[in-house]
């Protein structure tokens, strides 16, 4: 076993450890437990020197994040964490003397970027839904306190803008129109429906309907907004319960996807030189291609099942 293959296997082991750590931190039950016991005041549990290694990892992440932001600023285009696939592939290619790792890094970069962007959109939509729930609850509370509807809506929208910031220009423009309609006697239902076009803010369309019914028919606006907030809150809780139920199958699928890496490490410990066989022999390259295709199909299948369960 030469030095290049040894370093490559060690790099693979580190990737496995990082994947397992990321897998464990995404578990829903573990996340809730950490949030619940975050302020217990107990010292961190871990082996000696664990805090130092955490500090080193934090510094490395800060350096990578700073380099990514500088690259995005110089290129004038958004650069995400997926660009790290290229240097990782080049490093593994230099260590293994094979062009396959750089090619795999180039192929993985757009796929990972697409996955990260989809995850960011889902998170943004969920934050919007939470903001709509807060908005409806705040307006209903102010109405019961005797405030006029327009003033209550204007204050709630202003607090919503301060809390979220609205980095998206279109979202900021919608909120500005809604705020102007509430403060200066504009068409509030139309502004609410326009803001509801933003993904995740569909609850504002129901709020617009409640506003029109309360204005024309004299119905209680506070009760209608409370019902809208309760319906959105029930939908959010149902989605969280479903994701908690799917956390186990997703963890199992990710663990099964990492088994080939464990097989490489096991073969290296037995002196079989699996990297040389997979990267530098025709039969190994065929086995590697078939394994990658089957691995990708398995991951796509499990992710499609999970998405279908969430949408259903």
From TrEMBL:
<feature type="transmembrane region" description="Helical">
    <location>
        <begin position="283"/>
        <end position="302"/>
    </location>
</feature>
<protein>
    <submittedName>
        <fullName>Type II secretion system F family protein</fullName>
    </submittedName>
</protein>
<dbReference type="InterPro" id="IPR018076">
    <property type="entry name" value="T2SS_GspF_dom"/>
</dbReference>
<feature type="transmembrane region" description="Helical">
    <location>
        <begin position="253"/>
        <end position="271"/>
    </location>
</feature>
<keyword id="KW-0472">Membrane</keyword>
<keyword id="KW-0812">Transmembrane</keyword>
<keyword id="KW-1003">Cell membrane</keyword>
<dbReference type="Pfam" id="PF00482">
    <property type="entry name" value="T2SSF"/>
</dbReference>
<feature type="domain" description="Type II secretion system protein GspF">
    <location>
        <begin position="139"/>
        <end position="265"/>
    </location>
</feature>
<keyword id="KW-1133">Transmembrane helix</keyword>
């Amino acid at each position: 076993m030469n030095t290049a293959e040894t370093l490559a296997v060690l790099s693979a082991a580190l990737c496995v450890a990082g994947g397992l750590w990321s897998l464990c931190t995404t578990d829903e039950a573990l996340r809730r437990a950490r949030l619940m016991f975050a302020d217990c005041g107990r010292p961190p549990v871990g082996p000696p020197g664990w805090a130092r290694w955490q500090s080193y990892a934090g510094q490395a992440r800060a350096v990578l994040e700073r380099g990514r932001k500088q690259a995005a600023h110089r290129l004038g285009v958004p650069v995400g964490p997926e660009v790290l696939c290229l240097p990782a592939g080049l490093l593994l290619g230099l260590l293994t003397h094979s062009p396959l790792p750089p090619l795999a890094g180039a192929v993985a970069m757009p796929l990972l970027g697409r996955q990260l962007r989809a995850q960011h959109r889902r998170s943004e939509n969920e934050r919007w839904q939470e903001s709509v729930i807060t908005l409806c609850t705040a307006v209903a509370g102010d109405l019961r306190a005797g405030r006029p509807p327009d003033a209550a809506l204007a204050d709630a929208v202003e607090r919503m803008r301060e809390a979220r910031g609205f980095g998206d220009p279109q979202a900021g423009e919608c909120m500005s129109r809604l705020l102007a309609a509430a403060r200066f006697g504009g068409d509030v239902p139309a502004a609410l429906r326009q803001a509801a076009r933003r993904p995740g803010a569909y609850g504002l369309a129901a709020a617009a309907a409640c506003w029109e019914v309360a204005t024309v028919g004299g119905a209680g606006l506070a009760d209608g907004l409370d019902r809208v907030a309760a319906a959105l809150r029930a939908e959010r809780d149902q989605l969280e319960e479903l994701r908690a139920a799917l956390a186990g199958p997703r963890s199992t699928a990710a663990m099964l996807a990492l088994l080939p890496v464990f097989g490489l490490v096991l073969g290296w410990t037995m002196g079989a030189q699996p990297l040389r066989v997979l990267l530098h022999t025709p039969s190994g390259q065929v086995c590697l291609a078939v394994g990658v295709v089957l691995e990708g199909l398995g991951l796509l299948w499990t992710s499609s099942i999970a998405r279908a369960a969430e949408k259903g």
